[in-house]
Specification:
alpha+beta; six-stranded antiparallel sheet; 6 strands; 40% helix
């Protein structure tokens, strides 16, 4: 007959306690709270990069149109002359004003970004974020808009 005293009464399953699991969940929650806003900022930066690229491309088409026609134009006129104006998805790209051969003002905004970007041909091109109007081109003919 075997004695009960020879068997180990200490059973260790090797599991985690409820407190340990809660601590891990809290740490993961804190890390997620830090990472999600950073990720969202990166998305807005990517949207703004697409907008700035579209503005630069349209500005190059405006300059090419000026070379061939001695004046700036609307997006429709540029597309009729050269089929090359491409707009990124969810971007509204517009010619705000153009003044013959003098200059032009372009604007663009991504639907998921709070920023509107401006390109003023007479003020050095791309304007800083938050600029409300083009500083140099303030008069002329209103242009048109294309959406990607």
């Amino acid at each position: 007959m075997t004695s009960l005293s020879t068997k180990s009464s200490n059973t260790d399953d090797g599991g985690f306690t409820l407190i340990e699991l809660l601590v891990v969940i809290i740490i993961i929650g804190i890390l997620a709270a830090i990472a999600i806003p950073v990720f969202l900022k990166q998305r807005v930066k990517a949207y703004d990069t697409a907008v700035r690229s579209d503005l630069h491309n349209l500005a190059e088409f405006e300059e090419a149109y000026l070379t061939g026609h001695d004046r700036h134009a609307t997006i429709g006129e540029i597309q009729a002359d050269e089929d090359g104006v491409r707009v990124s998805q969810q971007v509204d790209l517009s010619v705000v004003l153009y003044d013959g051969a003098r200059g032009y003002c372009l604007a663009a905004k991504h639907n998921n970004s709070p920023n509107t970007w401006l390109w003023d041909s007479m003020a050095g091109g791309l304007q800083p974020a938050g600029t409300a109007t083009c500083p140099s081109v303030s008069s002329g003919t209103a242009g048109d808009t294309v959406t990607g």
